[in-house]
Design the sequence.
């Protein structure tokens, strides 16, 4: 057994976290031990996969994906994660289904779960909706399992909702943890989660919300910065404040990208829509008010256009710690002169950190797999150890 | 070996049914022993799955799904069934394929089958088409296999056609068999298969047709009731009559929901379109006559609206045997005040039986898997016994 | 071990070809030994599959399919191939993804590959684009693998581009090799790759290009024939000329279907669009010029219509070697009076060779699987031998 794997297995056992039978919806609902357990499992899976050892802890079983918004990387991350564990993905494509015919969430949740072990949901378009929908699904599964409809209780994994994007923020966290050499090294580090200009509109708020709520738990100094009017959901601001207090870190909000970048060890410049706009958009989408949506888009793009200086360029990067701060992005970034005329980040800065952002994204399949493993196994460490010592090869 | 599993395995061996190399298209083409064998296999698979033992009797192989109508539950049931047996589902999405380019059924059937073990087809929109199409596919596969084009003959499973919906009716049957304590207990029981009001139109006839043709084989007293004009296909009526005669049950048709419910042990109130309307619809769809279809829909909804009293409410349920008859539905039901203003069943009645209908649906993945297993294995009992006694775990 | 399998395994070992870590994009980039190795692996996989032995050399892993044009048979062939080897297919549906949002090929290639072992791409609509795109993907994967973003380098397989259609031509080759009794028997055989009339337009050029470039390597006398204006890409003509010279075969171009058929051992009559039209179409598609495309289609169909006599009928087949030449087609064929009023081939000729064309197509899943196996295994012969002698059954 390699030393690294051994250490992670011991850490996992020592944490004694119990997520069995639960879901992974919001990081702030989880204890530190639970988060650490998921992160340890993710690193175990990544390390064992690299050693060409199979991790198919399910011999058969379905994983249902439900994407209520477009997705490439999350779709592939989920598919990769499920395949790694031995599950087959079946997409719940609501366009092709009878859901439009007035079926209740409660019923559908059970109908798709008779042989299902995990359900991944992305629902990030409507303020006040995504997380609520996931909880509704989870409650329906609880009921179905308790009543004997289902042989097993599938784990629900949040692949992005209106509040949080835990598979993203946990991947970000693993990347910076390994970059700086351990969770302890994150203490006192400054991370600037800032808005950035983009010529598109309607980008979800869950990435910045997820980042400020997670990073504040690890003793980091989190500075959130955005132009006036681009507030996040108040409840996530409250979570970030409380977490910072508890962990001995700090949480500050400003309206200056430069002040946020100043001495930052890490910068995360990324566009999002103003909360108020997302609320109006939710109402318009629900009413199917297409002219209203067009009007809102125009208005919002005009508002964005007042802040084209919120670009992560070389000058701003110089403000960061020793001029060598680490750049993060959830991808795809709006890169000036590459993917758009003017965007979130200059081509030069992005190119410098490009491979880093790819590696950051590379944790996601393993984070998703870890969430599923943690929520479906009573003793994930034991299961992983059994597979690791099986002597089998994943690829002949 | 658990007693229950042992009994089922013995029953399966004793039945000595041989479906190997055949398809499962219509229940009335199958002998009693063949039906019983499929039902026994379904219960074996369900029981063994609950014991966490893998049932992957295929190590690799494709299962093709071909849904010519929208579907959630049948799509997931098919995917679950195939995954349970070890097959990977590949959807034949005719929109994305070259089928539109003038390809023959004969050719496509072979092209998708080089490594395919099962093909599930749903084609229920056109009177006179669905079953015919399935037979065409089956004949093409026979030819391809005989001529050496295919290494194996995939089994075709009817996931709903214009005549029958065997995976549904067999699931219904297993549910009531277990509810009442055995097939023998079904003898002499009254089941009311009745039309019910729905604000939608064009619902297929295959559910009621499948139910009257299957339940009459088990000595049940089947009463079919619908408002004038909502006849089923004459050939299925003939099958039901003959079956009732052979099994010592009875088959009656009336135009009164109340008379059907009277003393019924089981009620199955469910909307369908009148046969004549479906015939006209078939012609209009073939002609692509959209104004004609709109007109027909209006006419049909108006016809439906004359029968809003065909609702399964508490008053009608009181007419059933001891006021405690069992309510069945293939789901999704049109529930008054839940999924529509006025529908097939009152919210109170549905809620009382809701979990039951979920369990009823829960048999479907195993029924589909059983059909595939029965049609692709020379000795299904032996295969299942081998897997059951393997000592392996499905989920670590 | 069966004699046939033993011979193929020995041949494969003796060839000593090394495709490990490479892609399969164009046959003319591969050495004779490399082509022979892929063909030997394809026959090994086909033979072992027929013996009901599992070939899942991957226990888990994704295979990504990216179809930028409609497809049935190639989609199913790819899915079958991947499933045979143990890989799960995940479709990169660009409509559902964020690719439209200005993402670079470089990034997407990495994002979909964290746990991916093979990527199959079909991109045949735009002259000068498909092969270029595949190379771009391959370079991005090289970079990602080198930089530690990816644990493994997925193999890219060309499922049809603007230049070549190697999975088709290699299947054609295996079919005729077995028909005539070995590669040696192909020497000196005449194959007529001819244009044929079709009432559709815009058919890709990759099939004829692939065929003339591959068959000229095996000492065959290849005659390409088409009406004036239906030229192929000049670079592929150059490849065919050079190959013929090197192999001791010949390559001729004419404008007469009859002269091409004369004494031909094999005929391959198949429609394609004129190169110049495809070039104009590429420009119009890129500009989104729909009226221009309509106009071009009209013009092109009118041009086609001047050559309805380019049909493979019984009279022309009589010209072939002893009147018994072998008919090939990549399918679906435009069959006169079957799939269209007038097409590439008469119903009588097609019916005579129909089963043959199905068998021709039946090699494709195994050719694709062989390409993946060859490009992902250091010692494919050893892996196949291990699986072959495992004593396991693919289907219980």
Sequence:
């Amino acid at each position: 057994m390699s030393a690294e794997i051994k250490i992670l297995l011991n850490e996992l056992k020592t944490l004694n976290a119990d997520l069995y039978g639960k879901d992974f919806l919001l990081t702030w609902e989880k204890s530190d031990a639970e988060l650490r357990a998921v992160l340890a499992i993710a690193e175990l899976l990544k390390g064992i996969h690299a050693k060409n050892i199979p991790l198919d802890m399910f011999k058969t079983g379905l994983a249902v994906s439900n994407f209520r918004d477009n997705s490439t990387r999350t779709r592939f991350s989920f598919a990769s994660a499920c395949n790694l564990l031995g599950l087959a993905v079946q997409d719940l494509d609501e366009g092709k289904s009878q859901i439009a015919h007035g079926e209740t969430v409660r019923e559908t949740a059970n109908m798709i779960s008779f042989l299902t072990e995990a359900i991944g949901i992305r629902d990030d378009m409507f303020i006040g909706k995504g997380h609520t929908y996931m909880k509704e699904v989870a409650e329906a599964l609880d009921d179905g399992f308790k009543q004997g409809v289902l042989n097993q209780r599938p784990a629900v994994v949040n692949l992005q909702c209106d509040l949080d994007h835990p598979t993203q923020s946990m991947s970000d966290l693993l990347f910076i943890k390994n970059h700086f050499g351990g969770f302890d090294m994150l203490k006192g580090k400054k991370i600037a989660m800032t808005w950035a200009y983009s010529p598109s509109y309607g980008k979800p708020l869950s990435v910045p919300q997820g980042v400020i709520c997670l990073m504040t738990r690890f003793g980091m100094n989190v500075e959130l910065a955005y132009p006036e009017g681009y507030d996040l959901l108040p409840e996530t601001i409250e979570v970030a404040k409380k977490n910072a207090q508890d962990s001995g870190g700090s949480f500050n909000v400003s309206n200056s990208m430069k002040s946020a970048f100043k001495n930052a060890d890490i910068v995360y410049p990324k566009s999002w829509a103003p909360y108020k706009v997302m609320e109006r958009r939710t109402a318009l989408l629900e009413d199917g008010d297409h002219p209203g949506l067009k009007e809102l888009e125009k208005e919002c793009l005009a508002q964005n256009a007042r802040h084209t200086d919120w670009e992560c360029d070389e000058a701003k990067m110089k403000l960061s710690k020793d001029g060598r701060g680490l750049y993060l992005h959830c991808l795809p970034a709006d890169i000036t002169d590459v993917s758009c005329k003017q965007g979130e980040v200059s081509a030069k800065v992005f190119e410098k950190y490009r491979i880093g952002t790819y590696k950051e994204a590379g944790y996601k399949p393993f984070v998703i797999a870890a969430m599923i493993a943690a929520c479906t196994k009573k003793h994930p460490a034991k299961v992983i150890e059994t597979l690791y010592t099986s002597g089998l090869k994943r690829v002949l």
Q: What stands out?
A: Residues 168-345 of chain A form a domain with the Rossmann fold fold (CATH 3.40.50.1370). Residues 124 and 162 of chain A are 5 Å apart (CA to CA). The beta strands of chain A are 62-67, 88-91, 116-122, 155-158, 190-194, 221-225, 250-254, 266-269, 326-327.
